Amino acid sequence: MQRIKVKASTNYEVVIGKDLLNKIGVEIRKIAEPCKVGIITDNKVAGKYLETVKNSLEKEGFTTYNFVFKNGEKSKTVETFIKIQNFLAENEFSRKDILLALGGGVVGDLTGFCASTYMRGIRYVQAPTTLLAGIDSSVGGKTAIDLKAGKNLVGTFYQPIKVVFDIKTLDSLPEKEYLNGLGEGVKYAIMDGGEIYELVKDGLSHANLEKFCALCVKSKKAVVEKDEKEGGYRKILNLGHTFAHAIEKLSDYTIPHGRCVAMGLKIIADVSLKQGWLSTAESILVEKLLKNNGLMTPSPFEKKDMIEVMRRDKKVSGDKITIVSIAKIGKCEFKEIKLDQLKKYLR
Ligand SMILES: NC(=O)c1ccc[n+]([C@@H]2O[C@H](COP(=O)([O-])OP(=O)(O)OC[C@H]3O[C@@H](n4cnc5c(N)ncnc54)[C@H](O)[C@@H]3O)[C@@H](O)[C@H]2O)c1
Ligand SMILES: [Zn+2]
Q1: Which of 81, 204, 261, 324 satisfies CB 3.0 to 4.6 Å to 244 for a cystine?
Q2: Where are the beta strands (DSSP E) in the chain?
Q3: For residue 317, is pLDDT > 90?
Q4: Which domain, by its residues, includes 253?
Q5: Do the beta carbons of residue 38 and residue 93 sit within 8 Å?
């Protein structure tokens, strides 16, 4: 088991290990008196883990309520947000009570947003059950819901009071969802190099999963502690994301985010190589890293279409865009590049 302390506007602990869900009551009791806990989850996760979580909380004296919504990004809406707020009000939740996000990034983002706004803010705990949520979205306090006009357009920065990541839950995660999370995971390996890179370079083994997740969280923690509200430096986490967002949009969000990040990482490695920012030897290492983890799928879209989407990106100023480039495994830097130049490099 690993315990990682995050120092942000709220200080909190991220606990990572096996079979933690049946001890989640004990974990929350360490930081809170018995109160109401509103468990927010989706129908798929509820079927697998809700009972365990409820039992564990009730054993420690908490009174549980649960709100279950349909799984998937399509539920991360204003409508679900309002339903949850009504559920909290009808069950007379007060600022002394706690919300618990049990699920993937959709559940986490939505619950965090509800927690940050209900009665101007109540406490919440993240219990991620996907690889993506465990190594990325549950840490750092970004909360969000989607609008028809785009993803994550409404949200807040609001940190949880604890994150409890039971990696045993990943045993039931479909391969597609696992690879989705791994796309973000290899991003951390490229950013940090060192131990985390060594763990995944030949393909991540199950035996190293806990260590790997802890290193990803440590990597994100370090960035969040420097720049919690994304004034500048936190944008380094956008490595591969400028292209990923374009691919996601062109696919009408049918290709999972993490897979798009993996495609984006390959593109930024190619661009960095062609610009002379990255050596041939290091670009081969990036390619091998993606290949060995089953993440070497090229973008299915035309370069002109990708550039058109990128022109509307908020990182564009005039004819230039700021991107996170790869200097080598373990070193990434912000660089400005002309969109026309970028177009030449895309295949
Ligand atoms: N807040 C942040 O910093 C941040 C960062 C990255 C992504 N995100 C957001 O995260 C969301 C994506 O998260 P996600 O990929 O976890 O998606 P998700 O929450 O939709 O989960 C993916 C699917 O897996 C199922 N599932 C979850 N846990 C399971 C388990 N243990 N066993 C079997 N099935 C399980 C879910 O029901 C769902 O169908 C997006 O909305 C994205 O915008 C947020
Ligand atoms: Zn991402």
Answers
A1: 261
A2: 2-7, 11-17, 36-42, 63-69, 98-103, 123-128, 142-147, 150-157, 162-166, 316-317, 320-328, 331-338
A3: no
A4: 177-345
A5: yes
User: Do 88 and 198 sit in the same domain of this protein?
Assistant: no
Q: Could you tell me if 166 and 251 lie in one domain?
A: no
Considering the domain architecture, whether residues 38 and 71 belong to the same structural domain is answered as: yes
User: Is any ligand 1 atom within 6 A of the Cβ of residue 44?
Assistant: yes
CATH number, domain at 223?
A: 1.20.1090.10
Torsions phi, psi for 271 (to 5 deg): -65, -45
Q: Considering its fold, how many domains does the chain have in total?
A: 2
Instruction: Give the model's pLDDT for residue 182.
Output: 97
* Domain-ending residue, one of 173, 208, 226: 173
Segment 14-73, tens digit of pLDDT: 999 999 999 999 999 999 999 999 999 999 999 999 999 999 999 999 999 999 999 999
Q: Based on the domain organization, do 15 and 129 belong to the same domain? A: yes
Handedness of CA 156, 123, 105, 162 (dihedral sign): positive
pLDDT at residue 107, rounded to an integer: 98
- Ranges of H-type helices in 201-293: 209-226, 241-250, 257-274, 280-292
Domain-ending residue, one of 137, 152, 173: 173
| Residues in Cβ contact with 242 at an 8 Å cutoff, skipping those fewer than 6 apart | 264, 268, 310, 313, 315, 321, 323, 324
So which residues are the catalytic ones? 120, 142, 184, 220, 230, 234, 238, 241, 245, 257
pTM, rounded to two decimals: 0.96
Q: Is the pLDDT of residue 226 over 80?
A: yes
Cβ proximity of 278 and 345 under 8 Å: no
- 203 and 121 in a common domain: no
Q: How far does residue 139's CA lie from ligand 2's centre (Å)?
A: 12
Give the number of the atom of ligand 1 that is nearest the alpha carbon of residue 131: 16
Closest CA to 211 of 192, 196, 193: 196
Q: Do residues 276 and 261 make contact, with C-beta atoms less than 8 angstroms apart?
A: no
